[in-house]
Amino acid sequence: MKNFILIYFIVINSIAFFSMYIDKKRAIRNEWRIKEATLMSIAVIGGSIGSIIGMYSFRHKTKHIKFTFGIPFILFLQFLSLWTSLSFQCFYCGCNEHNYHNSC
Questions:
Q1: Helix or strand run (H / E) with residue 19
Q2: For the segment 30-55, what is each residue's pLDDT rounded down to a tens digit?
Q3: CA 58 – CA 100 distance, rounded (Å)
Q4: pTM for the predicted model, two decimal places
């Protein structure tokens, strides 16, 4: 399960990163663009780190408040939800005990 989650985050952040690249190239060429809602959705489903790296690597969407504050806020919420979900589980075995493995 841990491998699946790791692979998922690598893939979704790569997709987010390259989506910013593709959209920037299409913007330069005045071609059909990726919808902003799609770019935000990719960030929401786990690609926020890739989106942020792509935004600043390609200087794309950096003047849009929705992206400059929205995507870091999404990342903050993702870290907060991860922290709260892990704080209720034992890091070692996943149980819900908080007695440092005396009964795990």
A1: helix 2-28
A2: 999 999 999 999 999 999 999 999 99
A3: 45
A4: 0.80
